[in-house]
Design goal:
This protein is of the alpha+beta class and 249 residues long. It has one domain. The chain has five helices and ten strands. It has a six-stranded antiparallel β-sheet with strand order 2-1-3-4-5-6, with helices on both faces. Strands 7-8 form a two-stranded antiparallel sheet. A two-stranded parallel sheet has the order 9-10. α1 runs parallel beside α2.
């Protein structure tokens, strides 16, 4: 006897079966790829940290080329000589500090009884000791994050920024060379006073010759994202100040 496929019940049953089958297939694929996804996330974080200290494959004036995934672990071990975790007054070495999720730490720190863990990466390049501070903030549409490398005088030696969903051609430009390169040489302090770095509209230093004004030029049409970068640097860098200032004592 022929099945009546015009019934609503048939359509509903068929849809339910397809949802179950497709859902099961996707869940299986996701589980199978989980270890590879996790590994790629680790490589990406290593690449970003190395980029901030100037270890990359850049050749042209505008390209952004990371150390390849087949070489990134070796490069990370070579250039990142120590990883530490600052937790209150306690400083401990942790070879996997780069795996600390600063978003989760920020959430946990809403509990006044929780002492937030602050990972810091110490690198050596061209005879300089560099201190890489991870940070996370809010752009126009979603999260922004980055790594800022400073020397012991708190002069920026390099940065890397990225975003989850800023507007292409506007806020998304925070991850472009012309914006990131402007931060190199900028001072985080004004004398002994912490100022951070302001992404400033109407900055009177468009080619960024003044490195002691605590400012870089803003991206046209991306005021809120720029403000987010400013707030992120001030908020997160400030937490590391006691340790970074102690380096000169």
């Amino acid at each position: 006897m022929a099945r009546n496929t015009d019934k609503n019940s048939y359509t509903i049953i068929f849809a339910v079966i397809m949802v179950i089958v497709v859902g099961s297939l996707l869940a299986g694929i996701a589980q199978g790829l989980k270890s590879k996804i996790t590994l790629n996330e680790r490589f990406e974080k290593m690449q970003n940290i190395l980029y901030a200290i100037g270890v990359n494959g850049n050749e042209g004036s505008g390209d952004i080329t990371f150390i390849s995934t087949d070489k990134v672990e070796e490069a990370f071990s070579k250039y990142i000589t120590k990883q530490i975790v600052i937790q209150g007054d306690e400083v401990t070495e942790n070879p996997e500090a780069y795996l600390i999720d600063i978003k989760k730490e920020e959430t946990k720190a809403k509990d006044p009884n929780y002492q937030r863990r602050l990972p810091l990466f110490i690198g050596e390049k061209d005879g300089k000791t560099l201190y890489v501070v991870p940070m996370r903030g809010k752009g126009l549409w979603d999260a922004i994050w980055g790594f800022v490398a400073v020397d012991k005088s708190l002069v920026v030696q390099g940065v890397f920024f990225d975003h989850a969903g800023e507007t292409p051609g506007l806020g998304a430009e925070i991850k472009q060379r012309y914006f990131m390169d402007d931060f190199t040489g900028e001072h985080v302090l004004d004398g002994d006073v912490f100022k951070g770095i302001t992404v400033a509209k109407g900055n009177n230093d468009p080619i960024n010759e003044n490195k002691t004004d605590n400012k870089v030029d803003a991206i046209a049409g991306a005021t809120i994202t720029g403000d987010g970068v400013t707030a992120m640097i001030k908020k997160d860098m400030k937490m590391y100040l006691p340790y970074l200032k102690s380096l000169n004592q």
